[in-house]
Design a protein that fits this description.
The chain is α+β, with helices and mostly antiparallel strands. The chain is built from 12 helices and 5 strands. Helix 2 crosses helix 3. The radius of gyration is 20 Å and the shape is globular.
């Protein structure tokens, strides 16, 4: 780990960003350019003191997960992300690893969607980042173990993950999850992360194995979804899927028909945020 170089790199990258670049309000007049330390800490999900010590060259070695969070918070390019990992004493993650770097352009779009649920998922269903509305709608993944952030694992490993959807749609949704995973598997056979994911899914029981043996293939596309939210009730949503060039990262945006009852309930959800959802939403992270 190169503490002085890491401190300098973090400081300079923070200075080049404005609150508007990361979806934050401008706030009071700033004496120096760039984000404040507390704003970067908030975006990365760590304490201000921890981040300040890193910029001062005296903090502990950040974990790979924390390095990935900092890369997202500072809107680093792929090359800058790799440089950050090297300075922190880690090998950069592979392109399709659970720590996949989210493209700054996707994060910029996500930052602009204040009143619409949206999240970025990998091509194998790992939820990489959510906006607050998506966390309120589908459950917050921030504090979950990495394998529990995968929507297909959640679907087959935890019955509570299905509670957000009408029972009559469960079969179609399960088929869609597995068919999408089949397509990704064919595109990159032997990928260690995908192999581990499939082994974990096979360990959930016979249900996944039965769907997998059907060998259905389909990539995730825009669709109409019904969400049975435990607080605001039934939501009939259009799920728009925006893919990157290589389709390895997908931006999912959930919208309601203007003036509809669902639109009113989404607005109520925006006002409520994630407060007091508690156990009612625990465990629910389907897409």
């Amino acid at each position: 780990m190169d503490r002085p170089a890491l401190a300098d790199f973090l400081t300079r990258r923070r200075a080049r960003l404005t609150p508007a670049d990361v979806g934050l309000p401008p706030g009071a007049r700033r004496r120096t350019p760039g984000l404040r330390r507390e704003e970067v800490a908030q975006l990365a999900g760590l304490s201000v003191d921890y981040y300040a010590r890193m910029e001062q060259g005296r903090g502990p070695q950040p974990s790979p997960q924390l390095a990935a969070a900092l890369a997202r918070a500072l809107r680093l390019t792929d090359d800058e992300r790799d440089h950050l990992f090297h300075l922190a004493g880690h090998e950069p993650p592979r392109r399709h690893s659970p720590l996949s770097h989210i493209r700054p352009g996707l994060l910029l779009i996500l930052d602009r969607l204040h009143d619409t649920p949206a999240q970025v998922v990998s091509d194998v269903g790992d939820v990489l980042v959510q906006n607050p509305m998506a966390a309120a709608l589908l459950g917050d993944v921030a504090d979950r173990a990495s394998h529990l952030r995968n929507v297909t694992v959640r679907w087959f490993a935890d019955p509570a993950a299905r509670a957000l959807f009408p029972p009559e749609e469960h079969d179609a949704l399960a088929r869609a999850h597995v068919a999408h995973l089949r397509a990704a598997h064919a595109a990159r056979p032997g990928d260690p992360h995908l192999v581990a994911l499939l082994n974990r899914l096979r360990a959930t029981g016979e249900e996944f194995a039965a769907y997998w043996e059907q060998h259905e293939v389909a990539v995730r596309r825009s669709s109409r979804k019904t969400v049975l939210h435990p607080v605001v009730g039934r939501l009939d949503l259009d799920c728009e899927v925006l893919a990157t060039g290589g389709r390895d990262q997908l931006l999912l945006v959930y919208t309601a028909d203007p003036g509809s009852e669902t639109a009113e309930r989404l607005e109520l959800l925006r006002v409520l945020g994630r407060q007091d959802l508690g156990a009612a939403e625990a465990g629910n992270v389907p897409v």
